[in-house]
């Protein structure tokens, strides 16, 4: 399962078969506990622990002579992407100094702000944090996110303002967000990072220890959400760029929790990462199916293929998409209950796209004959006949007299 692969279908097959085994044997909690134990063992007992995370340094100032802040830099060489992760902003002046010096283009906030805000809330508001002035120049409110455009100025050098975008996720409450709601926020983030010039240039000039033009991933509700976002965004970049990788979510979590113990802090966050990755692959593959009505032991509901939390059959706990995948691999010896097989067959038959009924294309000889007929007609009568474009043009006898 750790061999490197690429391609949406191959990744989807690997993750789906693994999830089937995990759900069938109820191994979610056992696997999560094993992830925490392995990360702790590597962190405390390994001679050469991973060195993928380092503190972000800023210019020393009065009261901060060591030049340290609460931000940490984490890099992913496979996608040539670096992130600055940050928890609760306790010292806003140091936070904005870090953003200004590192020229961060984005701040992604993964929790609804219930503490003292470190940024202006409304358009036109300006707040001064010691030597750094932050002004909100634009605000866009969506059902799932809020986008604010900031102009950051160092008052000692006002000629070099820094413009950045703040994206606040509204759908992530006390529990893991709904996939349909989170999709809008995640899609918007992907569009922003792929279209931003500074982030594209930073990837071209990527170095592991450089934090310049790195987005800030921030949360007031703990680093668990930050860890979820890092893994989901990393896998999304791998898929979109068709990069060969092992695509082992559990291994990624072990590597992350080795240096960030609070990353992926509970079982629900672990499940959410897996659900969102499968959702992302389905969306990128462009599959769109109808929503069949399925009856299970809990009653009658309408199920969509993208929502892996809704189950086709409560006995084995498989979602629609997982049932389809297992049905396709019946020849490989995968055991599927009779109920799921029947549901899957009906589901696939209703999901097949019907080919449009188009008129048959004319043969090559017919096309040549039509061209010759039109040429003869033009040379004889010196004008185009309205019959020449029809399928019966070749049957016209031009030697006969037409009155």
From TrEMBL:
SUPFAM superfamilies: (Phosphotyrosine protein) phosphatases II. InterPro entries: Prot-tyrosine_phosphatase-like, Protein-Tyr_Phosphatase, PTP_cat, Tyr_Pase_cat. It comes from the Eukaryota. One of its GO terms (molecular function) is protein tyrosine phosphatase activity. This is Uncharacterized protein. It comes from Caenorhabditis remanei (Caenorhabditis vulgaris).
């Amino acid at each position: 399962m750790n061999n490197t692969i690429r391609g949406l279908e191959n990744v989807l097959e690997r993750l789906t078969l693994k999830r089937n085994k995990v759900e069938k044997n109820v191994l979610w909690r056992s696997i999560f506990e094993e992830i925490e134990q392995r990360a702790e063992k590597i962190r405390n007992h390994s001679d050469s622990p991973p060195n993928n995370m380092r503190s972000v340094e800023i210019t020393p100032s009065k009261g901060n002579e060591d030049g340290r802040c609460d931000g940490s830099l984490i890099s992913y060489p496979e996608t040539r992407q670096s992130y600055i992760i940050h928890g609760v902003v306790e010292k806003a002046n140091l936070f904005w100094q870090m953003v200004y010096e590192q020229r961060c283009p984005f701040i992604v906030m993964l929790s609804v702000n219930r503490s003292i805000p470190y940024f202006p809330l409304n358009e036109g508001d300006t707040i001064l944090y010691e030597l750094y002035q932050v002004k909100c120049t634009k605000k866009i409110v969506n059902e799932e996110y809020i986008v604010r455009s900031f102009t950051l100025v160092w008052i000692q050098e006002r000629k070099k303002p820094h413009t950045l975008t703040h994206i606040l996720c509204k759908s992530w409450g006390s529990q893991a967000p709904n996939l349909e709601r989170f999709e809008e926020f995640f899609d918007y983030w992907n569009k922003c990072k792929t279209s931003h010039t500074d982030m594209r240039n930073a990837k071209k000039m990527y170095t592991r220890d450089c934090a310049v033009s790195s987005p800030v991933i921030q949360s007031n509700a703990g680093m668990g959400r930050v860890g979820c976002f890092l893994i989901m965004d990393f896998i999304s970049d791998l898929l979109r760029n068709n990069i060969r990788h092992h695509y082992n979510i559990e291994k990624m979590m072990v590597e992350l929790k080795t240096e960030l113990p609070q990353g992926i802090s509970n079982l629900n966050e672990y499940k959410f990462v897996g659900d969102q990755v499968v959702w992302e692959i389905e969306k990128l593959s462009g599959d769109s199916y109808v929503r069949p009505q399925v009856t299970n032991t809990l009653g009658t509901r309408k199920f969509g293929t993208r929502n892996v939390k809704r189950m086709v059959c409560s006995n084995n706990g498989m979602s629609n998409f997982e049932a389809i995948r297992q049905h396709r691999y019946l020849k490989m010896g995968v055991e599927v209950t009779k109920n799921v097989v029947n549901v899957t067959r009906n589901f696939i038959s209703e999901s097949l796209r019907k080919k449009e009924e188009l008129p048959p294309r004319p043969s090559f000889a017919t096309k040549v004959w039509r061209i010759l007929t039109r040429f003869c007609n033009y040379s004889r009568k010196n004008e185009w006949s309205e019959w020449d474009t029809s399928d019966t043009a070749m049957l016209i006898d031009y030697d006969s007299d037409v009155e």
